[in-house]
UniProtKB/TrEMBL annotation:
One of its GO terms (biological process) is amino acid metabolic process. The keyword Transferase applies. InterPro entries: Aminotransferase_I/II_large, Ethylene_sulfur-biosynth, PyrdxlP-dep_Trfase, PyrdxlP-dep_Trfase_major, PyrdxlP-dep_Trfase_small. One of its GO terms (molecular function) is transaminase activity. It comes from Punctularia strigosozonata (strain HHB-11173) (White-rot fungus). CDD domains: AAT_like. This is PLP-dependent transferase. Keywords: Pyridoxal phosphate, Transferase.
Amino acid sequence: MTTGRKIEKIAGIIRNQYSEENPTGIVNCALAENTLMQEEYLKFFQSNLHLAGMDLTYGDTVGGSQRLFKALCRLFERYFNPAIPVRQEHIITGGGLGAMADQLVQLLCEPGDIILVARPYYNGFDDDVSERSQGVMYGVDVGNTDPAGAGSVAAFESALTKLSKEGRTVRAVMLCNPNNPLGFNYERGTIVEYCRFCEKHGIHLINDEIYALSQFGGESATPFTSILSIDVEKEAGCNPARVHMLYGMSKDFCANGLRVGAVVSQNRDLILAFYALARFVKVSSASDALWSSILLDDEKLDYFVTTNQDRLGAAYRYCCSWFESKGIPYQKASAGQYVFVNLNSFLRSENDEGVPLSTPLARDSDLHMDLVNAGIFIGLGSSFHHTECGWFRFTFSVMRAAMDVALDRFGQVLERRRKEKR
């Protein structure tokens, strides 16, 4: 499917989303949106939008306000355990993390340069990296190796060797931590090994940590380790100038629509280059003020973070219990807003018109559209570059009333398919 057709299809689904006013609409369990804290955030934001005269001007810096820089430094100090204090000169902000990733690739890569990432990976990276910046995402299959473990680096070594022999330039590694779509945290030692790998080959390490505070896995889960908490020079012999962290407001703060993203880097030349482009993606003063208002309120911030984590955990367990009741395998997750489920047993070899479904993608798409037609939208595993058919990403951070409707529709499709196979 072309990018244009994909956008048109998703836009049509979004225009017809389920709500109390539109009960026959489609429940969106595909896009990573968190509505579990929507009422609380709306109440807070509606009461805490305090603008100053500066907010009606171009502001005090083009790459973000002094207010937001202070708020972000405070957030990182409280929750990310930085090995080296994050200062204003390490940060650049813009209108959404996708826009910031796009600009980062423009600055790091020449057209055609490759960024390595473990498969499956967040499908939005393809657009962020390639649509304007002309970088190339290259999915690395780590096979049966634990993707969260240090052994996964060997697959990256093999991929880089292969690409180099082909005359292609690898410019960076993208590490999505917590992982999207698999919902795990990388082990600290693994992150250190990726730093060593990047230093060895003279490439950059980009760390997407947009789900950093969306943790729900409990004591047995691998704890989240931010790249900020690692002294990469001391622990990995890695030049800090080649390590960059991405963060944003969308996921941990349940506000995809407010569009604030940040890049944190000790590479001063890179940050200065960002400033040359910053006016094209400048954060709205209103979004800047709203995010700052919660980041600078210690009591409210702690409440929102811990409550969101509790609700994510409850929603995850609720959905996984339903999957288990239906005999649906899934990959256990400990962070994020989604779970990867295996619906391979519900795929069929021909559609309702008797037309053969001859490829894995055709069989996956057939089930996907069956679910959409029934009023539930979930993510195709193949769109995340998964190597096996039958896998789908299911977003569980949906209000319970809508989730019950989604699971009821989901169950009807699966039960009908079970009966067809008997």
